[in-house]
Design a protein that fits this description.
Blueprint: H1 4-10, E1 11-13, H2 22-25, H3 35-43, E2 46-50, E3 55-57, E4 65-71, E5 73-79, E6 85-92, E7 96-97, E8 111-114, E9 118-124, H4 128-134, H5 138-162, H6 165-180, E10 181-184, E11 187-190, H7 196-203, H8 207-219, E12 223-226, E13 229-232, H9 235-243
Antiparallel strand pairs: 1-2, 2-9, 3-8, 4-7, 4-9, 5-6, 5-8, 10-11, 11-13, 12-13
Length: about 250
């Protein structure tokens, strides 16, 4: 699924460019640090720009780097024993990812694919323990991020076990606009390319069911969808749909 030769051709390296401390100073994992210290951290980083759809790393590969997403969105993808692709979650800009060390692993537990053109910093994993020991707030915020993602995954498991398909799709769209929505003239648009197939992989249902549901919602003005674009026109009604009793 993920070809590293393709990835490397899609990633544009800029490790020698001067990076400004303000890139990190407002982010939780680094916000307690002085600019001089942030500068030292940036000197150890490699900056890469990835095209949309580029694979940053693949599930099961040795976790030799950890990453900070400066701009863009990352899809976290798992492969089932039957070979089906499941989108586990999305990571917005400003967050660390590829943090296998925080999970006690030496391999990546999932595949990271860019949902749109993205910019990320990376550091060798051998620096992880040093970062956690030396930089105030790094470890605390990292484990807080892990907790939030585990919480989201647990919520998804409960949804899959207890909710109807309509509720699951509504919940998925609400999560996406909460994480990455931007206001547009006719509602709140998910701010990265997303397809009906992506939604089906997020909600454990079929492409046909997602298409049928979105078409029905479009007719009553709840959403508007186009090629790789979904806008929620009536967020309140979507909340109602997400909590409706079967």
């Amino acid at each position: 699924m993920c070809d590293f030769h393709e990835m490397k051709s899609a990633a544009r390296f800029s490790s020698h460019a001067r990076l400004d401390e303000s890139l990190l100073s407002e982010l939780p994992a680094f916000s307690k640090l002085e600019n001089q210290v942030i500068g030292e951290i940036l000197e150890q980083a490699i900056s890469r720009r990835y095209d949309a759809g580029a694979c940053v790393f693949e599930e099961g590969d040795r976790a030799d780097h950890f990453y900070l997403l400066l701009d863009g969105y990352i899809r976290v993808v798992r492969i089932t024993p039957d070979g089906e692709q499941v989108i586990a979650l999305h990571i917005p800009s400003g967050q660390l990812f590829g943090i296998a060390k925080a999970l006690g692993r030496d391999t990546y537990p999932a595949t990271a694919i860019t949902a749109k053109e993205s910019l990320a910093l990376s550091w060798p994993m051998r620096l992880w323990d040093d970062f956690a020991a030396r930089y105030d707030g790094f470890a605390t915020e990292t484990y807080k991020t892990v907790g939030q993602r585990m919480g989201e995954m647990n919520n998804r498991i409960v949804e899959m076990a207890t909710q109807q398909v309509e509720q699951r799709i509504a919940c998925a769209l609400l999560r996406l606009i909460n994480q990455s929505g931007r206001k547009v003239s006719d509602g709140i648009e998910i701010n990265f390319p997303i397809t009906r197939q992506d939604l089906s992989e997020m909600t454990g249902t079929t492409l046909h069911t997602v298409s049928r549901m979105l078409s029905a919602w479009e007719k009553v003005g709840v959403v508007k969808s186009g090629r790789k674009k979904i806008t929620v026109c009536d967020p309140h009604q979507l909340v109602v749909l997400s909590t409706a009793k079967p």
